[in-house]
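Supplementary Methods S3. Complex input for the alpha-methylisocitric acid-bound model.
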Amino acid sequence: MGQNLFKKIIAAHLMSGTMTVGSEVGIRVDQTLTQDALGTMAYLQFEAMDVPVVKTKSVSYIDHNTLQDGFENADDHRYLQTVADKHGIKYSKAGNGICHQVHLERFSRPGDTLIGSDSHTPTCGAVGMSAMGVGGMDVAVAMAGGPFYFVYPQVVRVNLEGKLQPWCAAKDIILELLKILTTKGNVGTVIEYGGSGLAHLTVPERATITNMGAELGVTTSLFPSDEMTRQFFKAQAREQDWQELKPDEDADYDRVINLDLASIEPNIACPHSPDNVKMVREVAGLEVQQVMVGSCTNSSYRDLMMVAAMLKGKQVHPKVSLGIAPGSKQVLAMIAENGALKDLVAAGARILESTCGFCVGCGQAPQTKGVSLRTNNRNFEGRSGTKDGQVYLVSPETAVAAALSGKVTDPRELDMEYPTIILPEVYEIDDSMILLPSEDQSVEVFRGPNIGEPPKNTPMPEKLTAKVAIKVGDKITTDHIMPAGAYLKYRSNVPKYSSYVFYHIDPEFAPKCATNKAEGLASVIVAGLSYGQGSSREHAALCPMYLGVRVLLAKSVERIHGANLTNFGILQLTFADDTDYERIQAGDELAVDNMYQAIKQDIVLVRNVTQGYTFETKCNLTPRQRDIVLCGGLLNYTAK
Ligand code: MIC
Ligand code: SF4
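Predicted complex, serialized as structure tokens:
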């Protein structure tokens, strides 16, 4: 049996373990990326490792916290710039673009391994890389030369056959897949795309698809590196970075899904989950107040040229506010040069910074109960900044159709010829906003008052007594656990940020944990299926740890968040029997006697002291992860 592409790349980077589904492997990391919202913690952890210069090709991006409504973000940016300068890391200044868009344009490389402290890092899988989203701590370890560990996944092949119909876009393909696979239950899976349809899918379109693999919850997604990929590298003046990469003809896959591209219609993900997908025509007619184009999913040159072509000579509907954030300086410079920017401005669009912005709730919150059509990847409740905002995810084509008509409109119904977008033979190359690090390490690192030391956990006690501080349901995202938006600026200040854990679900969560702590008890979070979906923000583990959370008891846990919990010494256990989830209540006191013995087993017995019964939980951690949890997290484990 031949090898699939993912296996080929991992085999070429394998440092430990065997590539069998479910067992842990350690790989060599070629490249890392960070962004400013998670970067400070990653670099503080890196500094603590005392390694003068990074061992990886690393880039630090400023793209998330660019709303400088106080000194905090500006301080963080200066810290990030100086720490990058000192330790051999490239620094992409605010305004240069969104990390995934810029990394794809300027640093991606077929066959390389990339980890990034952002869940949409798999975007670069569009050019045949193994790119994974991880927590900042894992990035720090990789930069110091350590391996990156993950559980070897099953590989699913998705065959894209045929050709998309006019007005149907790459976004509609990934929304179709979200309809099939949903956001739940895809942990431990990699998606490899293939099929005759690839001949018509450009790299930016492929990137829309790999980007939203994060919403499926898969480990990564990747396309082969083919002639289309070569053209992209040539146009980026980086043909030397290109190589052909494909799976063997008789490659082995755990599952095969076939999608006929010609049958895909414009899709729309309805509030409040990316897998709540309907066809646009089923929602048509709904009045729209806001349309936002941008984010790392759909802000490429191709996307903005489509938007400009559709808007040319027309006016945005009087009741709609249209915002457009180009994905990178390259995209913005090119549409400025060729006149498309003028068409956008003339049509009444609001041109925003080349940053994450509205996507992470930094600005552009919709009106009360406002319907907002957006081209980004997440529509979790409240993420837009308006608790009752109704966010729908769509392609740029469907977004513009709504901006023009004021209603959800199937773009095929527009009285308009379908624009043909020709990708440039040469992109405009100007890397002047990517600063190269100093040759020597004499740089003084700037630390403003917003930057605190990352707190450490203590080793797991032998006898754990704890209280359930909160009980939540299914699909709790890291946005629920650690809100972003206006609170983002406290990312480097863990004591402050910790007071907002679960803030929108139970503002008493942090005070309850403090009471438990005062009574000498640890705290426990109880959750349903797919706990920790979405962002890779390690604060969703770090801040609960800071508050005294020692255990997560859930029906299931998502990959990146699960890894972050382990890195910060929080034990994750899953219910052996789901009826025990029903039975347990917030406020119950729990105990695990002989923790050091118990954690070696696959079944861990937990006593419910309050209700007087004992129940079984499963521990799915690898032996290395169990040791890390007992040590109280990765920093303690590494020091040991
Ligand atoms: C997101 O899209 O949720 C973010 C903001 O980019 C996060 C990272 C973060 O929380 O800083 C992600 O996707 O990992
Ligand atoms: Fe930024 Fe949004 Fe992409 Fe996250 S999903 S990296 S917030 S653009």
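The longest strand covers residues 154-161. The first helix runs from residue 5 to 11.
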